[in-house]
Amino acid sequence: MAIVVNMPRLSDTMEEGTVAAWLKKVGDKVEEGDILAEIETDKATMEFESFNEGTLLHIGVQEGETTKVDELLAIIGDEGEDISDLINGTANASAEAKEESKEEEKAPAETESKEETSTEADLPEGVIVVTMPRLSDTMEEGTVATWLKKVGDTVEEGDILAEIETDKATMEFESFQSGTLLEIGLQEGESAKVDALLAIIGPAGTDVSGVAANFATSSAPAKTEEAPKAEPKKEVSKPAPTSASTQRPSAPTPTPVVDGGRLYVSPLAKKMAEEKGINLSQVQGSGENGRIIKRDIENYTPAASAASVGKFVPSGQEDFDEVANSNMRKAIAKNLAKSKFTAPHYYLNVEFDMDNAIAFREQFNTLPDTKISFNDMIVKACALALKQHPQVNSQWFDDKMRLNNHVHIGVAVAVPDGLVVPVVKFANEQSLPQLNAAVKNFAGRARNKKLTLDEMEGSTFTVSNLGMFGIESFTSIINQPNSAILSVGAIVQKPVVKNGQVVPGNTMKLCLACDHRTVDGATGSLFLQTLKGYIENPVTMLV
């Protein structure tokens, strides 16, 4: 007997949900506990598992669409079962409930549903269209960094098809179908909106040229109806030509010849090498058949004898290079601009005596297999101080303020595309060596874009350290929804006054940026006093 699955209430404040991705398609077998879909709520994107067994007979909400809690999401039952009464009954009930508020939206939705049904009917038997997935809750478009399969390759369920760059990280995208890769819709280095054609998988030898052309033609109007803004329309209507003209004016698979031999390199890797002035003949490829791919350029360390030189420009001649903004760079710009212009920032500057901290670190690092940095000590001190000042460990939302009783510290890490903030969870409960290992691990994987979304979410406070680059003092923009961020400068040796005498000393300047909506000046000052006690007497962090 068929069972109607409604949009679940996945959070206490959830009133409607958006289907970010379906992990099952119509006709698939569903077991109890299988993940049906990823649903975006008002707080996060969460996996929704099935509590029933059977065949997925109907999908009521397509990817990217939104509906109220308890509205029809899907129908599960026996294969071939007639569910027309259930669909019609649910549709009629839904129409009556929404007759006043959504009368105008009903017709376009039905038209789009019919177009999708007809498109599916036109697909050759066994052919599956793979679209650009939504790999993060804020992702609007993705860039294909590397294809791990090529046209004609056999694809098994679970195989990694491609590496896709989102606004937060570069992630592996695995296939949920088996078959032969018949068509690639986006070349390496090209970008497209979520749900745009990514690839086509099906039986070997199947002609899918018409499928690709019809998908591009039929999907453009649908996208325009959903998002009638000018900018997305331009990118969705012709994703391939736009990306190609911007990122790769030449053929999609260049193979430059070096010393009479053929050098295999992806278009994105070649573009990055040109921008960085890297000689591709000196790069060891890690891709298939020794192919040079993006990560090889990112991890490339030039030989000591190879001095980097700037581009030659004749005297008196204007010259510039244009580099397309990456998804990560665009997301950083959007988030920081929002934070700077919505949160009322103010700054508290202090200077700490670091003599005891230096001595403590030297002594601590004499322990076998132990090495900690000043940054580890600062993170630990902040974590302990935040437990005593929950107001600084708070988060601001439009309708409430959250005072966190746990401490998750974000540590800003510079990467080629900008800045990422991996999060050290429960930092106050970790020892200094544990913090050192965690931060090192995060920093290494951040530079290779291998961090998961979960590792970059949930911070309650942020530390940004430019002291290692010789910066004595600076201010930072708050990482919302956090209420504060600490900017850490370099340790400087200079004359200081101790016991009425001028003696050599070591000091460090710090700047606490606070959101005045949650942290008052006195509250921020008390936090810095507590932090000063831990930094200037680090042995207290071991108690």
TrEMBL record:
Keywords: Acyltransferase, Lipoyl, Transferase. CDD domains: lipoyl_domain. Its cofactor is (R)-lipoate. Transmembrane segments: none annotated. InterPro entries: 2-oxoA_DH_lipoyl-BS (IPR003016), 2-oxoacid_DH_actylTfrase (IPR001078), Biotin_lipoyl (IPR000089), CAT-like_dom_sf (IPR023213), E2/Pdx1 (IPR045257), E3-bd_dom_sf (IPR036625), PSBD (IPR004167), Single_hybrid_motif (IPR011053). Residues 2-77, 127-202 form the Lipoyl-binding domain. Residues 91-123, 219-260 are annotated as: Disordered. Residues 96-117, 223-237 have a biased composition (Basic and acidic residues). Pfam families: 2-oxoacid_dh, Biotin_lipoyl, E3_binding. Its EC number is 2.3.1.-. SUPFAM superfamilies: CoA-dependent acyltransferases, Peripheral subunit-binding domain of 2-oxo acid dehydrogenase complex, Single hybrid motif. Residues 264-301 form the Peripheral subunit-binding (PSBD) domain. Belongs to the 2-oxoacid dehydrogenase family. This is Dihydrolipoamide acetyltransferase component of pyruvate dehydrogenase complex. It comes from Hwangdonia seohaensis.
